[in-house]
Amino acid sequence: MKDNDSRLLELMEEAITSETMDPETIKDILKQGKRRVKRFDTIVKQADKQLLEQVYQQEKEFDLRMQNERMMAQQAKHAALGEMMDAVAHQWKQPLNAITMLTDLLIIEHRQGSVDEAYLKEFKSDMWSQVDHLLTTLSEFRSFFRPDKASEVINMRKTLDAVLLLVKDELMKNTINVTLDCEDDISAMVIKNEFKHIVLNILNNAKDAFVDNNIAKREITINVFEDQESVILEIQDNAGGIPEQILPDIFKANVTSKAEGKGTGIGLYMSKQIADKMSAELRAKNHDEGALFTLRIPKVAEKEPE
Ligand SMILES: Nc1ncnc2c1ncn2[C@@H]1O[C@H](COP(=O)(O)OP(=O)(O)O)[C@@H](O)[C@H]1O
Ligand SMILES: [Mg+2]
Hints:
Heat Shock Protein 90; five-stranded mixed β-sheet; 6 helices; 7 strands; elongated; binds adenosine-5'-diphosphate
């Protein structure tokens, strides 16, 4: 084919430059050349069309994937919102009960004529400490769902304390003891709310595992430490471990061992997405008594002055 083409080119050159070639032959050679060009044209056009088709298919697949991911993120948000609402409801029950009780007591004491200035002062301060608790929980809850997409340097201990405050009641209700081991001065560069999300997901899963596996003595240990390159957060429980058949796929979407309506299989998928976004590494494994989740957050290199 190639040889034919170069032969044709040679002939065409000869036809154009030759002074002796007869006009009929020249015409014939040029005709052949024209036919050849036409064929090339068709081939190129076909290839173009195929390429276009391919690009179009790829774009379609990409769109579909994006759509799926958006849907998944939305689902995860709803699931997290539900879990948070539960946490807040539990968190609020106790102070609301206390407020009702304090008010009932005030009325009784008033009837008995024992409400004086000092009593009222104490009443007010008791009331305030309950209201304060309600407000703290509420503001934590609100800031949790406010979008803050930028990374920032956070104090690990304070941030973990804030997450624990959110789930304190839920953990207590399920008699789960949490130990946090973290030096005061460890900080990390993360997207704050999303980081909290990861921790909350892991804690919630541990809680579910304790309940599902009917564990008597329930312990969660949170350890934070540093090495040269990273800040490392370990969350370990003694809830019996991740089912072995699920373990390899635990960060995939829709992987759950929980009953329909109880599990979504989205929590850890989302957690992994968030970790990826922060260039952090999230891993899960089992140990003797339960699960161990490790989040390794890279330290950001100090920027050299220019
Ligand atoms: N601490 C844990 N102990 C045991 N199994 C766990 C633990 N954390 C996660 N898993 C397993 O991983 C699965 C996926 O978790 P997740 O993505 O949060 O979805 P969901 O909680 O909705 O099932 C759970 O269904 C459970 O089987
Ligand atoms: Mg979960």
